[in-house]
Amino acid sequence: MREFRFDRPADVGDAVRRSGSDTAFLAGGTTLVDLMKLEVMSPRHVLDINRLPLRGIDATGGGLRIGALERMSDVAADPHVRRGYPVLSRALELSASGQLRNMASIGGNLLQRTRCGYFRDVSTPCNKRQPGSGCPAVEGENRTHAVLGTSDSCVATHPSDLAVALVALDAKVRLRGRDGTRTVDLRDFYPLPGDTPHLEHDLRPGELVTEVVVPPLDWATRSTYLKIRDRQSYEFALSSAAVAVRRVGDTIVEARVAVGGMGTRPWRLPAVEKALAGRRAGEDTYATAAAAAVEGARPLRHNAFKPELMKRTLIRALLELEQPR
């Protein structure tokens, strides 16, 4: 870890004013500190934002507002979240160990960086870490890498479980910067890698995530998050699915579907949603709809199993909603 200056800004405006190109915001530190130790990130100035008034979970005005500094464990346990948006609670509970969930913030979770081994090994090339140096994962070890949204420059998966669930629910992020406040659809917040995989989000220099806003969706009570991984605890997704379904009797009227572990960003599946709408709930319907999930998939040498795994994950997640609650 390299030498850096450490400060605690007095308020959000002060944090924004003090930030610069070599600044990093510190919340839970569960990603930043690791990357600083590895010298993947070497900010010269670290701003501890934990004292800023960016907390609170509010479900009183319709929808849900979550402060960026709320801890993952607190949001997962909140009764409004558990009752109204179980897909969020489940995604958070499956994200990390209990110790990490007690420390990690919501904003930090959405901004965490890829777990690609090449990105974290400074002795190897990586276009995310050093633009133009290459992507050894394309021809190298790529079992856990993406099959959707990839490019010749990057095949790294997006690591956040929570972001997948939020994208399925059309969530937005509020941002505060030198030019004021703006709101961005989370689905658009993460760009595809293209030729610029080092540009991982739509944050402008000095901007800070202040809160997450989930619009009202009364039928999100019928939702879940399923995560498939190599081991049950403290592991990132090989495949995951966030699903929410509105039914009238046995007929699916509307659905929201997104997957993780498959894409270079949280991946919404409108073709699957369309294939579910108007159909009778059941495994045959789910299997037909899941077939649309793999459109455009580009498997690599070691992850050719992923498209089939994605379909099976979706079917299983939808079947979970059939179980008595």
UniProtKB/TrEMBL annotation:
<feature type="domain" description="FAD-binding PCMH-type">
    <location>
        <begin position="1"/>
        <end position="219"/>
    </location>
</feature>
<protein>
    <submittedName>
        <fullName>Carbon-monoxide dehydrogenase medium subunit</fullName>
    </submittedName>
</protein>
<dbReference type="InterPro" id="IPR036318">
    <property type="entry name" value="FAD-bd_PCMH-like_sf"/>
</dbReference>
<dbReference type="GO" id="GO:0071949">
    <property type="term" value="F:FAD binding"/>
</dbReference>
<keyword id="KW-0274">FAD</keyword>
<dbReference type="InterPro" id="IPR005107">
    <property type="entry name" value="CO_DH_flav_C"/>
</dbReference>
<dbReference type="GO" id="GO:0016491">
    <property type="term" value="F:oxidoreductase activity"/>
</dbReference>
<dbReference type="InterPro" id="IPR036683">
    <property type="entry name" value="CO_DH_flav_C_dom_sf"/>
</dbReference>
<dbReference type="Pfam" id="PF00941">
    <property type="entry name" value="FAD_binding_5"/>
</dbReference>
<dbReference type="InterPro" id="IPR016166">
    <property type="entry name" value="FAD-bd_PCMH"/>
</dbReference>
<dbReference type="InterPro" id="IPR016169">
    <property type="entry name" value="FAD-bd_PCMH_sub2"/>
</dbReference>
<dbReference type="InterPro" id="IPR051312">
    <property type="entry name" value="Diverse_Substr_Oxidored"/>
</dbReference>
<dbReference type="InterPro" id="IPR016167">
    <property type="entry name" value="FAD-bd_PCMH_sub1"/>
</dbReference>
<dbReference type="InterPro" id="IPR002346">
    <property type="entry name" value="Mopterin_DH_FAD-bd"/>
</dbReference>
<keyword id="KW-0560">Oxidoreductase</keyword>
<keyword id="KW-0285">Flavoprotein</keyword>
<dbReference type="Pfam" id="PF03450">
    <property type="entry name" value="CO_deh_flav_C"/>
</dbReference>
